[in-house]
Amino acid sequence: MSLAHSDTDMNLADRSVVVVGSGFGGLSTACYLADAGADVTVVEKNDQLGGRASVLERDGFRFDMGPSWYLMPDVFERFFGHFGRRPDDYYELEHLDPHYKIFFKDGDDVTVTADREETKATFEEYEPGAGAALDAYLEEAEETYEIGMEHFVYTDRPRFRDYVDLDVFRHARGLTFLGSMQGHVEEYFDHPKLQQIMQYTLVFLGGSPKNTPALYNLMSHVDFNLGVHYPEEGMGGVVDGIVEMSRELGVEFRTDSEVESILGSAGNFRVETADGFLRADFVVSDADYAHTEQELLPPQSRQYDADYWKSRTYAPSAFLLYLGVEGDVDPLAHHTLVLPSDWNDHFDEIFEAPAWPDDPAYYLCVPSETDDSVAPEGHSNLFALVPIAPGLDDGPATRERYRDLVLDDIAENTGVDLRDRIVVEERFCVSDFADRYNSIEGTALGLAHTLRQTGPLRPGHRSSEVPGLYFTGSFTTPGIGVPMCLISGQHTADAVVEDYGE
C-alpha cells in the first residue's frame, strides 16, 4: 500500500524511529514516518545534513559537492504535495535555457536548448531524418516514463512474485525491459554523436550504454520534455527546504554523530553512536547498504556476506575539482559536457578494466552562469567531474597528475584556460567518498542500474534477518538519483506502516 494513496488511517503513534543518515532517502523516509505519527530522529555522521548533497563554502564561493542537476520536477511536486506543500514554499526554480552544452573533442560543439524544433534542426545537421527520429524516440520515452513511473517506480515491487499480476503484464507490454541502451538508441540514430547525446544521462544512473537496460530511455523524456531546472541556492537549497519541512513535521536531527552499531530488533533497538546511544522501536538505514550490513550489524543480523558485495557492479566514483576562478568562463554553459568522439574506452576503464582514463569524458558545472550568489563579484564558480572506476588508488601524486590533465583538457577542448586564474581549489575523489560517506569502494552513487541490479534484483527495503530494520536510498528500489531516493523513502515508510501501523 502507499502512504500517499491510503484509504485507511494507519499510523505509528507513540512509536520511535531512528533514521541513520540524512541523504535524500533518509530525509524522505523521516518525513513520511513523522507524518504517520512516529517520533523520528535522524542521526547524521557529518556536520551537514543532506548526505552526498553537501555544500562547500570557501572565500565567498559556494559549491554543491554532490548532485547538481534538478531533474524530474514532477517527483518533487508529488513529494511535497503529500504533506500539503509545494516546492516553491521552500525554494524557487529557474528553467535553464540552454539545458546544456556539449563540446566534442574533435572541435565540434552542440547546444541543446528548450526549443524542440531548434534541437530537431540540430539533429538534422548530423543525420537526415534525425529530427523525425528524435520525435519518435521521445514519444516512446514519454510513454515509458508514464508507464514505468506509475506502475514500476511509484508502485514498489520488491519481489518477483509482485510481477505475477495481470495489471503488471498489461502495462509491461509497453516497455522495453531487455536489451541495452546502446542497442536501443542505435535503432533510431546512426551518428555516434547523436547516440551520445541520447545516452549521456546514463551517468546519472551510474551505468554505461552497454550495461544499462533499454528501459532507461525514459531519461530522455526527463531531459528533453520535462526540462532542466536550477533550484534557488542549488541542491543545497533543496536539502534546506526538505529539512525545514521535516522539522515542521516534528523530525529531530543530530549531526556530528556517527553510528557505530545497530543492535536489537523491533521494539527494542539500541543504536550506538560515537557520543552515546539511542533507543528506538524501528531503525531505517540511509547509510550505504553495504556499510550498514558489514560494519554496523553483528554477523548474525546480516542478509548478505562479503562475497555478495564484492560481486556487485558499482556505479562510478568521481574525480572532482571545485574551482573558484577569476573572470568569466564563457563559452561554458551552466551544464557543460566534454566528450571524446568515441567514449567506449572511457566506459571500459570504468566497468571492464578499471584504470584512470587517458581521454576522459567529463562534466563541468558553472552555477555562477545562473546564480550570482555562488561566487564573489568578478569571479566564476565551477566544478569538474570525471567519472572513474570505484576502488581506484587516488593518492596525492595521482590526484596532482590528473588535476593537470583535466585542466589541460578543458583548455584544449573548450578554449577556456583556467590554469592561471584559480583562487580557490578543492579536490574530492574515491577515498573521500569512502571516508566521508562510508561508501563501498568509494562509489559516488551506489549500485549501478545493470539488468541484474534493477527492480527486485536490488537489495530490499526490509531486512530479512532483523524485524523492524529497514533500508532506504540508492542501493534499494527504485535506485540511483535524487528523485529516486525521494521515492525510495516513501517505499520504506510504506513498508514500516504496512508491517507495524495501527
Automatic annotation (TrEMBL):
**Alphabetical UniProt keywords:** Carotenoid biosynthesis, Oxidoreductase
Q: In the UniProt record, does the keyword Oxidoreductase occur?
A: yes
Q: What Gene3D superfamilies does this protein map onto?
A: FAD/NAD(P)-binding domain (3.50.50.60)
What GO molecular functions are on record for this protein?
Answer: oxidoreductase activity
Please give the pathway this protein is involved in: Carotenoid biosynthesis
For whether the record's keyword set contains tRNA processing, the answer is: no
Stored InterPro entries: Amino_oxidase, Carotenoid/retinoid_OxRdtase, FAD/NAD-bd_sf
What's a single GO BP term from this record? Answer: carotenoid biosynthetic process
Q: Per the database record, which ranges form the Amine oxidase domain?
A: 25-496
Alphabetized NCBIfam families for the sequence: crtI_fam (TIGR02734)
Record's protein name: Phytoene desaturase family protein
Q: Species name for this entry?
A: Halorussus caseinilyticus
Question: What does the record give as the organism's lineage?
Answer: Archaea, Methanobacteriati, Methanobacteriota, Stenosarchaea group, Halobacteria
